[in-house]
């Protein structure tokens, strides 16, 4: 199962492209980068989570590094962000939705990969979450920003819940494409509700009045 | 040997917990993080050094990633830091002492792991030092701080000396728990003397008057 | 082939030393570091690119980590930068030239290593570029700078072109030392022209007037 189902593969590629596009856009707004920098940060955002996943799972070389489709889509996303920066503002919501698709698919497929390799539920949840948020974290560190995933928005939490749903379903015997899509839908729904209502994870006590 | 001795395992777990607690405390004071960010940075601080060690030694997946006790203790340390930030100030010295225990045990056990896998003394000293200071370095990079280990305090030097003592003793045939504890005690003593007298490593010439 | 040719090995070692020296000099000018920090950042600059290369290629443990000559030369470069910071300003151009040698050799040998392990041209070009610019990128992240390779100067582009030349020549059957040196010479020439005329890669449209 996992990435063998054509629908999941397509979603994984869509997610890679959306992450790269959105990641490069974020980078180009925050810092004065050249074309190499924008494409590189797009590729890091789209491929970085999967690379960390494959280090943790001892599944090197990274799957997204040896498959030219992932490399090409990530580079294309970065290039489009470089060329069309200003025009893309008009479709910001569409990009946010695609980014949420990427978050959901990465979280679920990351967890599945861990489970298929024989790791436990705890490891699968960690790996799914890392796959989903790792790329954006690397990008933020590169452009000198505290990773937004650590400070604000409901971004990592939906990924974690999606990975958890996928892992529990997998262990209960639901290992097909439908179960994966259902777990991804849970992540997607929570993320979009968070975007709509601007929800945040709790802050440490005593800091609310900063 | 190595981590098989129960006493060393307990000390390694204590060190993981102390690193996570101390690391999350440092992070929460420096940056406005949400609960996910605090726990994540606690886990990075507690587990990151061992992960880099296992990349360098080709011992993936990381040992601390597949053992749930390390994951649980690191997450618990981060959670406690999140909840009790202000109260923990009262036991700052106790946390510093526990952190020095972690530094010492990580340096020695990191060096031992390299030696047991057949690496040389030079590699063992590097790996021991990286195990001890790698987690805090990752945390500092995440919260946009130049890693303190590169700029101030006697923190990496005791780890390096502890790893060196462990490696030399190991090569001389002293490979038991007692030798490991003695090497860790050297590291611990130098670290605590550094804390007590606020010692620093030398700065580049001509910069003292900055 | 690859690193087996004595001339290429010498150039690789020279490049490691030059990267470490130049990297540590950059670090010591940007931040107040202690001796451990300066040597560490020199070693990261000299050895980091090769380490990322070996993660991507699943060739762990990193080749530069198990060969003491690389470790010793990188540490020596950092130590010299620590001791002689101010005097080295007089030979800034010589250091820039040596750094360009390192860039060229790292790019070509990185690409060759990928090809010899059976990876494709696309992967070889990525790996060559990463080998050449990865170390400086890690250093910049550590000292809280947006990696210069993402923002300015013709630095990554010559590495990419050199790796591409090497990969194309390799696939066309030119796999000897001469072909490697020719590809490295292309990278070196572009880099030095860029230094001489202060050339930069294109910036995103609409940002030129910032």
From TrEMBL, chains A, B, C:
Coiled-coil positions: none
Similarity remark: Belongs to the UPF0126 family.
Domain named Glycine transporter: residues: 10-85, 97-170
Record keyword Transmembrane helix present: yes
Transmembrane parts of this sequence: 6-28, 35-56, 68-84, 91-112, 118-138, 150-170, 176-194
Keywords: Cell membrane, Membrane, Transmembrane, Transmembrane helix
Main location: membrane
Pfam families: Gly_transporter
Location in or out of the cell: Cell membrane
Membrane topology summary: Multi-pass membrane protein
Highest taxon of source: Bacteria
GO cellular component, one term: plasma membrane
Protein name: Membrane protein
InterPro entries: Gly_transporter (IPR005115)
